[in-house]
């Protein structure tokens, strides 16, 4: 696909998607980095005293916001070609997606903290389960809703 800027008279190639496998690899690498950011913020806030109810939920909420916002911008830049487009639809999709995954991540974390037996790894395991759940939702929705690439349409050019 080629885009032409009539004012500048310059033809530029449109960004292309790295394909599903490439997207999964990039998403995984970016997600791994952002999960470390998320987990670091969560553990840091817990170390500062936010390790009891309701503060642990607020710590998880804040860490989720920091991690997923970082992931959104990195994935927009490096993973999904459709993310390179500007528009209110993307921002609206982002807000809706992250509101849902925010509720899922905090809710799953809360559930895990209630159902898991007491151990030194309880909070970590709860975080991992909540993060994994949110990550799956994020990839699916980012790829096929928020950063959806426009479908290529077959057009014929007729010369007069």
Q: What fraction of the residues are assigned to beta strands by DSSP?
A: 5-15%
Estimated radius of gyration: 20 Å
Contiguous uncertain segments of 5+ residues: 156-160
Strand order within the widest beta sheet:
1-2
- By DSSP, the count of extended strands is 2
Explain this structure to me?
- By secondary structure, the protein is mainly α.
- The protein has one domain.
- It is built from four helices and two strands, in the order ββαααα.
- The radius of gyration is 20 Å and the shape is elongated.
- The chain starts with a strand and ends in a 14-residue tail after the last helix.
- It comes from Amycolatopsis japonica.
Can you lay out the helices and strands and say which pair or pack?
Layout: E1 2-5, E2 10-13, H1 19-47, H2 55-78, H3 88-115, H4 122-146
Helix pairs in contact: 1-2, 1-4, 2-3, 3-4
Transmembrane segments: 24-42, 54-74, 95-113, 125-146
Domain GtrA/DPMS transmembrane: 26-147
Protein name: GtrA/DPMS transmembrane domain-containing protein
């Amino acid at each position: 696909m080629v885009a032409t800027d009539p004012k500048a008279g310059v033809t530029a190639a449109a960004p292309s998607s790295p394909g599903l496998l490439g997207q999964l690899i990039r998403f995984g690498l970016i997600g791994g980095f952002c999960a470390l950011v998320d987990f670091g913020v969560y553990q840091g806030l817990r170390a500062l005293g936010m390790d009891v109810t309701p503060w642990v939920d607020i710590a998880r909420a804040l860490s989720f916001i920091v991690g997923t916002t970082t992931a959104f911008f990195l994935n927009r830049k490096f993973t999904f070609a459709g993310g390179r487009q500007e528009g209110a639809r993307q921002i609206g999709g982002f807000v809706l997606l992250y509101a849902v995954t925010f509720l899922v991540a905090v809710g799953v974390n809360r559930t895990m903290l209630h159902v898991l037996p007491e151990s030194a790894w309880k909070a970590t395991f709860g975080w991992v389960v909540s993060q994994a759940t949110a990550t799956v939702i994020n990839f699916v929705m980012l790829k096929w809703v928020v950063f959806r690439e426009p479908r290529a349409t077959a057009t014929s050019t007729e010369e007069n």
